[in-house]
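FORM 7B: Structural annotation worksheet

SECTION A. Query
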Amino acid sequence: MIIHNEFQTLSDAELLAHFYEGDLVTSAHDKARMAINEAGGVRSFVNSVSDKNARYSIEDNQAALKIKLALEITARYLGEKLQRADALTSPDLTRKFLQLKLRDLDYEVFGCVFLDNQHRVIKLEDIFVGTIDGSAVYPREVVKKALMNGAAAVILYHNHPSGVAEPSSADRAITERLKKALDLIDVRVLDHLIVGDGRCESFAERGII
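SECTION B. Predicted structure
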């Protein structure tokens, strides 16, 4: 997530305090620190709080919802920035966007970054949505999407809800099937990115593609 430099030195509680209102009894910083301690971290706090969860106060819910809105704005900002960039010369931007978009999902999503012949982003699209155990990926659907978008190349991506980004044998097998299917329409598979918890593994960097 991109933030201003002056905020990078703040503690988790100091950052979260900006989403709380202080009062005469408890400061915003104290409320933020208590929320973080109870949840076990900022990320756990944001992911666990909902307006239907009676364990948390209305103010906790409001703070968490504000953070989720901020994260959504950041994801859209990165997405727009990526669409104006060359995906291959901006690998960090691609990874930041995908990690922000997919890291905390408890189900698997498989998608493609469709690129033109200059490797500029045409479109970024989730194509298959699965369960906690995986998603069914059909090469014909990926081929159809590539043709519809006039893509010359693609970067495949999906997340592992387990948090472990290590490529599985199934990941390798579907990548090979997609490569063969897309080769038939002269669309190159440049990479396959797997998003885990804090990591984004690249097939290209590992020499798998």
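SECTION C. Observations
The first strand starts at residue 109 and ends at 115. Residues 86-206 form a domain with the Cytidine Deaminase; domain 2 fold (CATH 3.40.140.10).

SECTION D. Sign-off
Analyst initials: ____
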